[in-house]
Specification:
The protein is α/β, with parallel strands linked by helices. The chain is built from eleven helices and 13 strands.
């Protein structure tokens, strides 16, 4: 089901390479022999985000560029001579999107437009656009297929819907070779505490924390381990029978409630801490997405992809990573565990 095209000696750009999924994807592309340019957002601290924690044997083969996808000139300079572009750069924290919605338009919509224009200008062989399961909103039916209506239930999800529509427009208008993938809730090592699984793990492991503070425990999520999500990206970048300009769900096809996930984390950590529902951590009532459960059949049929790591194993890997960085003193203590 995969094309014979490999990543060996391919010039590949990863935007958002300094982030959670982007850093894992960049690593795997290097392992597969690609010439990887990793775009990290410029900052005055000299930090390349999670790329700074990548093993030196991998990091030495990365070409790290600092820039900003909101700047068209910067994007043009980086996209030139690239053959494949994985576009992951985005603002993704849903709570912050309520506070600063304009910034989500600037980054997620205008930034994506800059990538599309540059890819069109320089004849990129394929662009992989990172969408999100949040574009579906609360499920009208499950499992969610790609035909499910789109609902902008947060400024973040609305910005991603707009970006997806721009991608579709560029495929239809300019025949840009672009694949849209919609990862469901990815988790794993390097994910920040703005996401629900890391904040639960941190509280479960912290000896100074007697309870686990969370918002609503009833929403259901289709959690997918980061290694499986990265495999989905790799297949999206080279599979020869994917349709351009249409979305593909990448999820496990299994959903659990937030409360069930917490029970699993508590069990693995040996913590058994009570959970306190904190209204400050809950989304606005009409903005909460109550259930996300993927139907990944189309993507599986066309690429052979599958979700291999079940939740218990994935949580075990993630908890092991959190133990290691806490022991090394590499994480900042946050008494509020805000997400």
């Amino acid at each position: 089901m995969m094309s014979n095209i490999s990543y060996k000696e391919k010039n590949v750009l990863v935007t958002g390479a300094d982030g959670f999924i982007g850093s894992h994807l960049s690593e795997e592309l290097v392992r597969k022999g690609a010439n990887v340019t990793a775009l990290a957002q410029y900052n005055s601290f000299g930090s390349n985000g999670w790329l700074d924690k990548v093993d030196q044997s991998i990091r030495g083969d990365l070409t790290i560029k600092r820039g900003d996808i909101r700047d068209a000139g910067c994007v043009n300079a980086i996209v030139e001579k690239q053959e494949i572009v994985f576009h992951l750069a985005a603002l993704i924290a849903i709570p912050f999107s309520y506070e600063a919605p304009q910034s989500y338009i600037d980054v997620n919509v205008s930034g994506t437009l800059n990538v599309l224009e540059a890819a069109r200008r320089f004849g990129v062989e394929r662009v992989v656009q990172t969408s999100t399961s949040e574009v579906y909103g609360s499920a009208e039916f499950t499992p969610i297929t790609e035909d499910h209506p789109l609902h902008g239930q947060s400024p973040y999800s609305a910005s991603k819907i707009a970006a997806d529509m721009m991608c579709e427009a560029y495929v239809r208008s300019f025949e840009l070779p672009l694949v849209i993938i919609r990862p469901f809730n990815t988790y794993g090592p390097r994910q920040s505490e703005r996401a629900v699984i890391p904040t639960v793990i941190r509280q479960a492991l912290d000896p100074d924390c007697d309870i686990i503070k969370l918002g609503d425990l009833t929403p259901k999520r289709d959690f997918n381990y980061v290694g499986d999500t990265v495999d989905g990206f790799l297949r999206a970048g080279c599979a020869n029978n994917l349709d351009f300009g249409v979305p593909y769900n990448v999820g496990s096809g299994v959903a659990v409630t937030i409360g069930e996930m917490v029970e699993c984390v508590n069990s693995i950590c040996g913590a058994n801490k009570p959970v306190h529902q904190d209204d400050a951590r809950a989304r606005p009532a009409k903005s909460e997405v109550l259930e996300l459960l993927a139907c990944p059949k189309q993507f599986i049929d066309k690429t052979g992809w599958e979700s291999k790591v079940d939740l218990e194993l994935g949580l075990s890997h993630t908890i092991e990573w959190w133990r290691s960085i806490i022991q090394a003193g590499e994480t900042r203590y946050d008494s509020d565990y805000l997400i």
